[in-house]
Each structure stands twice: as structure tokens, then as C-alpha cells.
Amino acid sequence: MKIKTTLITLLTCLCFSTLALAQDDDAIKSTVNAYLDGITKGDTALLGKAFHPTAILRTFNASTGKIQDFPVKNFIRNTPAGGAKATTKLVGYSYAGVSATATVELEFQDFKYIDLLSLLKVNDEWKIVCRVFSRVENDVQIKGSAGVAAKTPASTSKKVVKPKKDDGW
User: Fold this and answer.
1) What does the alpha-carbon distance between residue 2 and residue 143 come to, in Å, rounded to a whole number?
2) Exposure of 37 by Cβ count < 10 A (0-12 exposed, 13-18 middle, 19+ buried)?
3) Among the four 48, 62, 72, 150, which has the fewest Cβ within 10 Å?
4) Per residue of the chain (169 residues), what is the pLDDT tens digit?
5) What are phi and psi of 3, to 5 degrees?
């Protein structure tokens, strides 16, 4: 009887954890799709739903040689009425805990944007907090090593270092 109770408890926990993961998957995709639909439909409400109010948009300005930041409120305000004439694609996403990343493409007639989006789960909602983007030629392909775990050398130190509260690590 005790084994049966333990087995039922374990199966229940497994079902709830699987459901929570599926909810995060759906919520992340929903946030990213709200961003993409907001752009292509010119829907500022969808963009406001996708982005955290303090989000930043960032790129490298080749003309000035400097990193350039744009507040999200300016980006949303300057979204063309009727939307941008682009095809969009969610290339991929990954997440752990309260942080996620997503890669998307917005392809226009003669160029495309490749966006690397950082998301955080804030008050049980996934929000884009940073958009790092590149404007590239249409034939440029995304490169990388998604899904490949980096090998790290074994530590020779036995010292256990505890992170300080809010130290960024």
C-alpha cells in the first residue's frame, strides 16, 4: 500500500512539472508571437504586451562605431500603422528558471533583421527585456552551436564560494 501511494504521488508530481514546462513553452512562444504580430500588423497593444516597459533595443551603429540603444517606448511609438511588410520566423528559443532567449528573423524585400531576444518571467508573465538586432542581407544565415554543451575543466579548488545576494551571478 505504501508503494502504491508513493508511486501515485510521484506520478502526480511528474504530471504537474510537465504541465508547468508546457505552460512556459506556450507562454514564451505567445510573447514572441505577440512581438512578431505587433510588428507585421502595426499593433502597438501587442507590442506593449510583449515587451517589459523598461526593455531596451540595442544594435551596433557601423557609421559611428558605437553601440546604439533605443527605448522600447520609442520603438512602439514608431511602429508603422498597418504594420511592416515582412515575413517572420521564430528560429528557436531556450529557457531555464525565469530567463529565456529567442532568435527570430524578420525578412523584408531587400534585407532582414535577426533579433536575439532576452526574456524574463515577471509576475508569471514572460516579457522581452532586451532586443539585440542586426540588419543583414537576405542570404545571411544564423550560425551557432545551439544545444551543444560547453566542456568546462574540472575545478582543482575545494573552496566553496557562495554568491552574495544580488551580485549578478
Assistant:
1) 52
2) middle
3) 150
4) 677 665 555 545 444 445 455 799 999 999 999 999 999 999 999 999 999 999 999 999 999 999 999 999 999 999 999 999 999 999 999 999 999 999 999 999 999 999 999 999 999 999 999 999 999 999 999 988 755 555 555 555 555 555 556 555 5
5) -65, -40
Among residues 168, 98, 89, 102, the alpha carbon closest in space to that of 132 is found at 102
Helix (H, G, I), strand (E, B) or coil at 149: coil
pTM for the structure as a whole? 0.76
Range 34-41, long-range pairs (CB < 8 A, 24+ positions): 35/104, 35/117, 35/128, 36/88, 36/90, 36/104, 36/106, 38/79, 39/79, 39/83, 39/84, 39/86, 39/88, 39/106, 40/83, 40/84, 40/85, 40/86, 40/88, 41/82, 41/83
Q: Is the C-alpha dihedral spanning 33, 20, 97, 144 positive or negative?
A: negative
Is the sign of the CA dihedral 82, 90, 29, 127 positive or negative? negative
Three-state secondary structure string covering 27-55: HHHHHHHHHHHHHHHCCHHHHHHHEEEEE
Query: Among the residues of the chain, which ranges form H helices?
Result: 2-41, 44-50, 72-77
